[in-house]
Write a structure and sequence with these properties.
The complex is a heterotrimer of chains A (332), B (308) and C (327).
Chain A lengths: L3 E12 L2 E12 L3 E5 L6 H8 L7 E9 L2 E2 L5 H7 L4 E4 L3 H4 L6 H13 L3 H14 L5 H4 L9 H14 L4 E5 L7 H18 L2 E6 L2 H7 L2 E6 L2 E7 H6 L4 H9 L48 E2 L5 E2 L13 H8 L1
Parallel strand pairs in A: 3-8, 3-9, 6-7, 7-8
Antiparallel strand pairs in A: 1-2, 1-4, 4-5, 9-10, 10-12, 11-12
Helix pairs in contact in A: 4-5, 4-7, 5-7
Chain B lengths: L1 H28 L3 H6 L5 H11 L5 H13 L13 H36 L4 H15 L2 H15 L12 H30 L2 H8 L4 H26 L6 H6 L5 H10 L3 H29 L1 H4 L5
Helix pairs in contact in B: 1-13, 5-6, 5-8, 5-13, 6-8, 7-8, 8-10, 9-10, 10-13, 12-13
Chain C lengths: L4 E12 L8 E13 L4 E5 L6 H8 L7 E6 L2 E2 L6 H7 L2 E5 L2 H4 L6 H11 L8 H11 L16 H13 L5 E5 L7 H18 L2 E6 L2 H7 L2 E6 L2 E7 H6 L4 H9 L38 H5 L5 E4 L2 E3 L8 H5 L1
Parallel strand pairs in C: 3-8, 3-9, 6-7, 7-8
Antiparallel strand pairs in C: 1-2, 1-4, 4-5, 9-10, 10-12, 11-12
The chains are: A alpha/beta (332), B mainly alpha (308), C alpha/beta (327).
Subcellular location (chain A): Cell inner membrane
Family (chain A): Belongs to the ABC transporter superfamily.
Membrane topology (chain A): Peripheral membrane protein
């Protein structure tokens, strides 16, 4: 059990008294690739911003965040600063605005090298150029002193990745890293993330609303809804037989490029406002297989026989007698 | 770059020309210098002689052309009152004005910017609320009221500072304070909102996520970005170094440009007023030009627009 | 069948200056595009950033004037932007673009904004206005109580519904949608796409659907045109073009689409950056990223030629089909 790099336990976050994260448990082992999936506003990013202490001051955080067994929650700012960049690096959705517009690219990378690897001057420059090469910035030497606006969106994301690599982190958290990019560039960035993980052995957490993209890079996936994990398991098992209706919905909603052209299958409704979460299962109002019980009882995340974890009273594909739902509904 | 500076210089030139033209026309339409200078009881032929001597009997456009010509040859006219060179009179007064406005500007910068930035970094704290309250108070109270309040407090009640004149350095304290309080408020508010805006930007989160210490995030990532809007306001303040003291100099009987302007307008001393306005316009325009160049230096995005 | 919209050889250039000293150089954003849209049909336009697809969309509506070529809508030449004739025509053709928050006025309620075109184009008498707004809101799946809300009080998907309702208010015959669902979650994308298709079927609206997302385009468009650096490089029905892409660029786009449940490893990924219109390669603009490129590709621009039944492609490496040559 000590092999876990990061352990989140019962992580809760609230803003101004509104709880947005309702107790997340998550382990990241060395070198593994985990996906965090769900619609916007389900708490995927908040989970990791909270773990790294990057949320604004008004956020209230409870529970436990342990890096290599060392607790962070409740620690002073310096404890978080010691983890950021060096142990856990993070890249974000909008690469162009995530780089400082008035500082030269080279300086933004060497800054991280000075901080984490104590490299200065020519040594830092050489290493920064190597990293820029590694993430696929053509002609790095000439572009070292350019500003972020002189790079395309895809290149800005590569530079963000180079900056993240500068700290030689054990874990890279990529928060919707390709959402703002063109399809071909998306594929390139995903490819780069896979290659880097293979070369450096760093673990990856990939946050996305697109199960399609997640399934390309991750082995294990956590599906989040309304601040909770509703299903988690190996990507293959999840894809072959999603058990939570929400997971199923996320897969079904992806338009296909092959097979018959057919009507898309959306998930009806929207993510609930955290101030007005429905009683019972938060997904029940949008769920086509919800029964009365779902509207009153909130299912806990439970270990299943096949190794996955699931929080649902009416899982997809459950063998059950045909009459059971009617009986249950009548009883309640 | 040369092209940029040339277009800016051309624009500056047009601005100055517009200001002096406007001043020229308005001054001549708002009263007769002869009447004012010589008094209402002056005999008619004295008035006519005065007008002829100063060219006031010529059609307006002839006077205007003559005026523009003389400006380009470096002649800014002669004061009707003192018969001395107008530019000379104005230049003599500049040091007195700068004695007030430069310390006032330094005070504004030294207090306003740090207060605003501190408040932005400690939002909703007591200090933040205090800064907002003080800033609003500072720039909503007109300077003549502020000046009188300060005189009342320090000269009348406490009796520690003189209320007017230019004899010792203590005489400068109250006018300087009066002049700086409004600017401190404006700068504090501006710096605060500029900083709050920058601190909410994604690249600040990136800098924190990199592992930089909070202090370094603020100093090397936030401040250079917040500088752009702050420089605009500071540029405006530098531009008004010469013109900004009219009210305060009058309250504290400080013999600077502002007082000279008030006296010269009252007397319709055309050459002097025009000379002052020209100088004010020139400083404004120059400081604007400097601000524009600073923008390019501070924000590389403005340097190479539409490069892609 | 008569065309609703026909564009012939559209060209749009703009001036770009490199640095403050640089000499302005003309850049061709759209470089000779011809296309047609039939009533009720959906034409998908696919391409990366810099392909000129958004500029093309604005030209089709007459918002940007073409420097070359012309646009014919319902048999008449597109009037000049801003003229009364153009304004009158705008009721019949509407634009929906990516960011609904920017398209909506934050100070007006949703219902007010949906009703706005009714007043501008004087489509219906005042007393029927409220009923029509309610009808439009129902059509796009907004609840009646949401009409009193302001844009920031709605979710992204709901805002885009409001924008679409407003676009439909004047009963247009053509809707140009520029990345209408790209900012939305996958689950909400599907809602909006389905809604657009239903509205289109019910009202016989033609659509030009511009997007970089092939999966969405495939499911909404009847025909698809792929753009690269201001030109159409391939066009075919959406059933065909993604199943058997001919142009190497279309092939690369298709293979870059993530397939759920499948690892990325082992797939061919198109390398290089999206092209920069200010720096157009010689010959076929795609040749620096193309694995098939030869000397011909580097020197000569391939023409858009018939490449099979109902399909065209602009590539030296695509053989014209035997029957097409014979015909």
């Amino acid at each position: 059990m000590t092999s876990n790099l990061v352990e989140l336990r019962d992580l809760k976050v609230s803003f101004d008294g509104v709880q947005v994260l309702h107790g997340i448990d998550l382990d990241v082992k060395r070198g593994e690739a985990i996906g965090l999936v769900g619609e916007s506003g389900c708490g995927k990013s908040v989970t990791w911003l909270a773990a790294l202490g990057l949320l604004p001051g008004k956020a209230r955080i409870s529970g436990s965040v342990q890096i290599d067994g060392r607790e962070l929650v409740g620690q002073p700012r310096s404890a978080f600063e010691a983890v950021r960049g060096g142990r856990i690096a993070m890249i974000f959705q909008d690469p162009s605005s995530s780089l400082n517009p008035v500082l030269r690219i080279g300086r933004q990378i060497t800054e991280a090298l000075a901080l984490h690897r104590n490299l200065k001057g020519e040594a830092a420059r050489t290493e920064a150029l190597r990293l820029m090469d590694m993430v696929g910035i053509p002609d790095a030497r000439r572009r070292f002193d350019l500003f972020p606006h002189e790079f395309s969106g895809g290149q800005c994301q590569r530079l963000m990745i180079a900056m993240a690599l500068a700290g030689d982190p054990d874990l890279l958290v990529a928060d919707e890293p390709t959402t703002a990019l063109d399809a071909t560039i998306q594929a390139q960035i995903l490819d780069l993330l896979i290659a880097l993980r293979r070369e450096t052995g760093m673990a990856t957490v990939f946050i996305s609303h697109d199960l399609g993209a997640v399934s390309q890079v991750c082995e294990r996936v956590l599906v989040m809804y309304a601040g909770r994990v509703v299903e988690q398991g190996e990507i293959g098992a999840l894809f072959d037989a999603p058990r939570h209706p929400y997971t199923r919905g996320l897969f079904d909603a992806i338009p296909r490029l092959d097979g018959e052209r057919r009507r898309l299958i959306p998930i009806h409704g929207t993510v609930p406002d955290p101030r007005r979460l429905p009683e019972g299962c938060a997904f029940a109002p949008r769920c086509s297989s919800a029964i009365d019980a779902c509207r009153h009882l909130r299912p806990d995340l439970t270990d299943m026989a096949d190794g996955r974890r699931l929080a649902c009273l009416r899982p997809v594909g459950e063998a059950r007698p045909a009459a059971a739902p009617a009986v249950l509904e009548g009883a309640l | 770059m040369i092209r940029f500076i040339l277009t800016r210089l051309l624009r500056a030139f047009i601005t100055i020309l517009a200001v002096i033209t406007f001043a020229f026309v308005v001054l001549r339409m708002s009263g007769d210098p002869a009447q004012v200078m010589l008094g209402p009881d002056a005999p008619n032929d004295t008035v006519l002689a005065f007008r002829a001597a100063w060219g006031l009997d010529q059609p307006l456009w002839v006077q205007y052309v003559a005026y523009i010509k003389s400006i380009f040859s470096g002649d800014f006219g002669v004061s009707m009152r003192d018969k001395a060179s107008a530019i000379q009179l104005v230049i003599e007064r500049i040091p007195a004005t700068l004695q007030l406005t430069i310390p006032a500007l330094l005070l504004k910068l030294a207090i306003g910017i740090p207060a605003g930035i501190y408040a932005a970094l400690h939002r909703q704290s007591i200090i933040d609320r205090g800064v907002i309250f003080g800033a609003v108070l500072g720039f909503t109270i007109p300077s003549f009221v502020m000046g009188l309040l300060l005189v009342l407090l320090f000269s009348v009640i406490l009796g520690v500072l003189p209320s007017g004149g230019q004899d010792t350095w203590q005489h400068g304290i109250l006018p300087t304070l009066t002049m700086s309080i409004g600017g401190i408020g404006i700068l504090a508010r501006f710096s605060r909102s500029a900083m709050i805006e920058v601190m909410g930007q994604p690249f600040i989160r990136t800098a924190s996520a990199k592992g930089l210490r909070w202090k370094d995030v603020v100093w090397s990532h936030a401040l250079p970005n917040a500088a752009v809007p702050i420089v605009t306001i500071v540029g405006f303040m530098v531009g008004s170094l010469i013109a900004g003291a009219v009210v305060v100099e009058s309250i504290f009987s400080w013999p600077g440009i502002g007082r000279l302007l008030v006296v010269s307008v009252t007397n319709r001393d055309l050459a002097v007023v025009q000379c002052i306005l020209l100088m004010v316009a020139a400083t404004m325009v120059v400081s604007n030009l400097v601000v524009d160049l600073l923008y390019g230096w501070l924000d590389p995005r403005l340097r190479s627009q539409s490069a892609h | 069948m008569a065309h609703l919209l026909e564009a012939r050889d559209l060209v749009r250039t703009y001036q770009v200056r490199r640095g403050l000293l640089g000499k302005p150089t003309p850049v061709r954003a759209v470089d000779g595009v011809s296309l047609t849209v039939r009533p009720g049909e959906t034409l998908g336009i696919v391409g990366e950033s810099g392909s000129g697809k958004s500029t093309l969309g604005r030209m089709l509506l007459g918002i940007d004037a073409p420097q070359g070529g012309d646009v014919v809508f319902e048999g008449q030449a597109m009037p000049e932007f801003g003229t009364p004739q153009w304004r009158a025509l705008r009721a019949r053709m509407q634009l929906v673009y990516q960011d609904p928050l920017a398209a909506l006025d934050r100070r007006l309620t949703i219902a007010q904004q949906i009703g706005e075109p009714l007043d501008i184009h004087k489509v219906i008498p005042k007393e029927h206005r409220a009923a029509r707004v309610a009808e439009l809101m129902a059509a796009v799946g907004l609840r009646p109580d949401q009409g009193g809300r302001y844009p920031h009080e709605l979710s992204g998907g709901q805002r885009q519904r409001a924008v679409i309702a407003r676009a439909l208010a004047s009963r247009p015959k053509l809707l140009v949608c520029d990345e209408p669902v790209s900012a939305l979650d996958v689950s909400i994308q599907a809602q909006v796409v389905n809604m657009l298709r239903d509205l289109q079927d019910m009202n016989n609206i033609a659509m030009v659907f511009i997007s970089h997302d092939l999966k969405v385009v495939r499911n909404i468009a009847d025909r698809v045109a792929v753009m690269y650096l201001g030109r159409i490089v391939e066009e075919a029905s959406s059933d065909v073009i993604f199943k058997t892409p001919l142009h190497p660029y279309t092939k690369a786009l298709v293979s870059s689409v993530p397939v759920p449940g499948k690892m990325l490893e082992g797939r061919v990924i198109l390398q290089g950056e999206p092209p920069n219109p200010a720096n157009r390669p010689s010959g076929c603009a795609f040749h620096p990223r193309c694995s098939l490129a030869n000397d011909l590709c580097r020197s000569r621009v391939p023409a858009l030629l018939v490449a099979g039944e109902g399909r065209t492609a602009a590539c030296h490496m695509v053989e014209a089909p035997a029957d097409a040559v014979a015909a």
